[in-house]
Amino acid sequence: MLANDLAELDRAHLIHPVMSWRDHEARGPHVLASGEGAYLTDASGRTLLDGFSGLWCVNVGYGQRSVVAAATEQMMRLPYATGYFGYAAEPSIRLAARLAAHAPGDLDHVFFTLGGSDAIDSVVRFIRFYMHAQGTPERRHVISLARGYHGSSTTGAGITGLPAFHRDSDLPLPWQHHISNPYPYRNPAGPDAGAIVAASLAEFHAKVEEIGADKVAAFFCEPITGSGGIIVPPKGWLPAMREACRALGILFVADEVITGFGRTGPMFACEDEGIVPDMMTVAKGLTSGYVPMGAVLMSDAVYRAIRDGSPEGATIGHGLTYSAHPVSAAVGLAVMDLYEGGLLAQGRRVGAHLARRLSAFADHPLVGEVRGRGMLQGLELVTDKASKAKPDRALGIAGKLAAAGIENRLIFRAFADDMVGFAPPLCCTEDDIDILVARLEATLAAVLDDPEVRAAV
Ligand code: PMP
Fold first, then answer.
1. Which residues of the chain have pLDDT under 50?
2. Given 277, 297, 324, which residue is the final one in a domain?
3. Same structural domain, 169 and 304
């Protein structure tokens, strides 16, 4: 089918996620045809470096034959097995055990979902079961970060703090609350780690007080805020929040949907600071996007409390038809083989190279800060470095950047009006990163050459 015909069909029928539908119809789709390693080829035959792993998910890169073979083999053998009524397929059992072995501390129990949003929904349901089992059902309120993203289901979009996900949706729900992100670059009192941690703790305690200490069930956060702007909390923030939650009997939920599976270096970003959450959500890198899958990892303590606190024989009424899907689990196992077989180590090595090379952009007139960890990096854009002025919305800098990126055969994520995000596949080599950096230089130069942008800086 001709690319133009496809574009027309797309405009007429395919609704795209998280976009202005009007803008999308005006621009039309960018149709991708195939991928190999870190490179994608589009319908017009142009090859682009995918600096964003699809949607921060294709951690192992495209075209991994062992992953495709695992899926094919499982589809032939047993394409579906329900987990209901006690049935299970071998890959699902093995993947649960493999995740438990890698996860920090006693996160030994795994409930599989189809992605991140229903993993967050599942956590919320498990929290309710847990609080009832503990005899504290009035603990139903949750607190999360104002720039946090936790999915697009009604529950998850409310736990998300970003206004675009609340608009016209009657969100957040009455039991969902938000506190500010620890945000060194824009912290009014400066980037001092101790001061930021203290301010966060004070805001958290004040929020708990306002809600009522015996009414708060859980605190949700990403170890590094992803979609809200790749905001890295200062060292010590994660353990301080984890301890504050423990002291108050509040469950600590780490959303590792983006940060999991080597994205920041270790298998899970919680390991960077040695914390063990009560529950953890994962997705994306779990199957590297080859097929959909997410999961909730639950501590032994929470699992036992729900198990033992439920009335004898009572059903724990939470399930998904495709929970622990055997094809997804087989893909997950093949992907885990790749991580363990050297890809995690490669991601750590190449991530250090990426961070080093990107740090040079801190001198660029449009760049306020370069930040991130490992293969998760971002550039925050400003039009005045001294005052840290954000680009005016009307400048449309995200759109200009994305377009210039495509011209230079580089895919990244231009988002939140002032962020350029990178999350390359872990299979990238140092040479791929050098190509990324050269293409980014050309992209930023083209945007700076735009007369409107020139006038604004
Ligand atoms: N949590 C986080 C931290 C995410 O980044 C995302 C997706 N970007 C989700 C949850 C939701 O995952 P999904 O899109 O797979 O439903």
1. none
2. 324
3. yes
Atom of ligand 1 nearest to the CA of 222: 3
- pLDDT value, residue 415: 87
With residue 399 as reference, give the H or E element that holds it: helix 397-407
Kindly give the number of the ligand 1 atom that is closest to the alpha carbon of 255.
Answer: 3
Q: Is 423 helix (H, G, I), strand (E, B) or coil?
A: coil
Same domain? 234 vs 105: yes
Sign of the torsion angle spanned by Cα atoms 231, 234, 239, 241 = negative
Q: How many domains does the chain have?
A: 2
If asked whether residues 261 and 202 sit together in one domain, one would say yes
Q: Which atom of ligand 1 is nearest to the CA of 151?
A: 11
CB of 302 within 6 A of ligand 1: the answer is: no
Q: How far is Cα of residue 54 from the mean position of the Cα atoms in its chain?
A: 12
What is the domain-level CATH number for residue 51? 3.90.1150.10
SS3 442: helix
What tens digit of pLDDT does each residue of 45-87 get? 999 999 999 999 999 999 999 999 999 999 999 999 999 999 9
Instruction: Identify the pLDDT of residue 313.
Output: 82
Does the global pTM surpass 0.90?
A: yes
Give residue-wise pLDDT tens across range 323-338: 999 999 999 999 999 9
* 448: exposed, middle or buried (Cβ count in 10 Å: 0-12, 13-18, 19+): middle
User: What does the alpha-carbon distance between residue 292 and residue 188 come to, in Å, rounded to a whole number?
Assistant: 41
* The pLDDT of residue 216: 98
Contact yes or no for 121/153 (Cβ under 8 A): yes
Q: Two tokens at 337?
A: 């083989």
Considering the domain architecture, whether residues 217 and 364 belong to the same structural domain is answered as no
Is the CB–ligand 1 distance for residue 255 below 6 Å?
yes
CA distances from 131 to 140, 304, 448 (A): 8, 12, 54
